[in-house]
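Input sequence (164 aa), recorded before submission:
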Amino acid sequence: MADLADFKENNYMILRQMVREEFTIYRQIVITEYAKDLAESRKCSLEEALVRATKLIDSKLSNGTDTPSNRLNVMAAGESDTVFGYLWLTVSEKTAWVYDIYIHPEWRGKGYGHAALDEMNGKLFLEGIVEIGLRVAENNGRAKKLYEKLGFEVSGFNLSKRLS
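Predicted structure, token format:
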């Protein structure tokens, strides 16, 4: 089993397609994390946010790893294939949209997300993709810093209003 030291020493990561068994784990993570984001940003209960997140994720990824136009990737360390994160994106014509990037907590802040995004950028460039978009939560300073470092620029703002 690889650990952080092994990964750093070998400086070897792979970005590969997710398999169905991994999707089951990832689905739970993406729903939970999205629900936390919704609860905070939309000022609703975690229970309400979990219902909304489950409904949205299940509709976006209705066929799991076989959902058309969606690419579900695993970020893994070296030959041991230790999974340290996930990357979900869609590709349409010459544009890609990153729906989710998740790094397991013990792997965060050590450059692995940066390495995975560099790998993604290179692969998409070779496919002829000319633009990548994503959304970052207002309160996610670490992610904003990473995206800016990678050359992403603010192209607009998401606004919402809760009707009661």
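Checked by second reader. The two ends are 51 Å apart (CA to CA).
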